[in-house]
Write a structure and sequence with these properties.
Layout (H helix, E strand, L loop, with lengths): L14 H8 L5 H8 L1 H8 L4 E5 L5 H8 L3 E6 L2 H10 L4 E4 L13 E7 L8 H12 L2 E12 L11 E2 L14 E6 L8 E4 L3 H10 L2 E7 L20 E8 L3
Parallel strand pairs: 1-2, 1-4, 2-3, 4-5
Antiparallel strand pairs: 5-10, 6-7, 7-8, 9-10
Helix pairs in contact: 1-5
This protein binds S-adenosylmethionine.
Length: about 250
């Protein structure tokens, strides 16, 4: 199915989902998404001003605050933002529309963090427009940190997800809807994401005028207090550190 033709509804655009998500911290497979970020950020980013794009209920925003950033959380779901604000009353959380971020401050930010956000964004043109808009926020040395599911997430079993009810995920192409069930929350309705290959992420960054500075694919370790299923052999997440391509 062409990603520009299908109808994709943001899984997080309603109150029940938002509340369910807000109770999620860093259990199981999610631990691997965040485990290495302090070190990655310390190595690639200057700690000062950040935008958390797709901040959801604020888990990723509060994480950046704990690392010492002055953060603005932005999202297209008011339900998610309402909960983020409850957890962090003095925090700065703003509703945005696609590609329109200039009011936040062009060239003002050291970091734009996008954690599990592009997994929910359909369309080449839409994604490119959004990434270009986010790129404008970066200062000269600023970075975009983009963390999303690997293609393998949708065809394997994990401590936090099951995908075995969705064998059609195996045939997914970039832009298709893929499904999984989250095991860490009570709401067991399938979650829909947008599938995107690694090669197409590379093309997308190129189209948006961004260059890859580093890529990470964290694996689970034996001594960690989780019942890893695929996590020690297959990475569930990929993390791209991006900079403006000035070549
Ligand atoms: C899976 S949640 C991740 C939340 C948070 N980053 C975290 O790690 O806990 C994805 C969030 O991205 C938001 N989102 C989806 N499409 C978006 C878009 N085009 N612009 C801004 N936010 C978007 C959703 O509303 C949702 O809150």
């Amino acid at each position: 199915m062409s990603d520009d033709k299908m109808k994709f509804e943001n899984s997080w655009g309603n109150q029940t989902r938002a509340e369910s998500y807000s109770r999620l911290e860093f259990p199981n497979t999610y631990y691997l998404a965040y485990r290495d970020l302090p070190e990655i950020i310390a190595r690639h980013v200057t700690v000062n001003r950040a935008v958390d794009f797709g901040c959801g209920t604020g888990r990723s925003t509060r994480f950046l605050k704990r690392l010492g950033f002055d953060v603005t959380g932005i999202d297209i779901s008011q339900d998610m933002l309402d909960i983020a604000k409850k957890f962090d009353i003095s925090g700065n959380y703003q509703l945005v529309t696609n590609g329109n971020y200039e009011h936040l401050g062009v060239g003002q930010f050291d970091l734009v963090q996008c954690i599990f956000t592009f997994d929910n964004i359909p369309g080449w043109e839409n994604r490119t427009n959004i990434l270009k808009g986010l790129g404008k926020l970066l200062n000269r040395t600023g970075k975009i940190l983009c963390l999303d599911s690997t293609p393998e997430l949708y065809t394997n079993e994990w401590a936090s997800f099951t995908t075995k009810e969705f064998p059609e995920n195996l045939n997914a192409k970039t832009g298709d809807i893929v499904r999984d069930i989250m095991l860490d929350i009570d709401d067991r309705r399938p979650v829909e994401d947008i599938f995107w290959t690694v090669a197409d992420y590379h093309k997308l960054f190129n189209l948006a005028g961004l260059a890859i500075e580093a890529t990470f694919k964290p694996l689970g370790h034996e001594n960690e207090p989780f019942e890893w299923i695929s996590e020690k052999a297959i990475a569930p997440w990929m993390i791209f550190v991006l900079k403006k391509d000035i070549t």
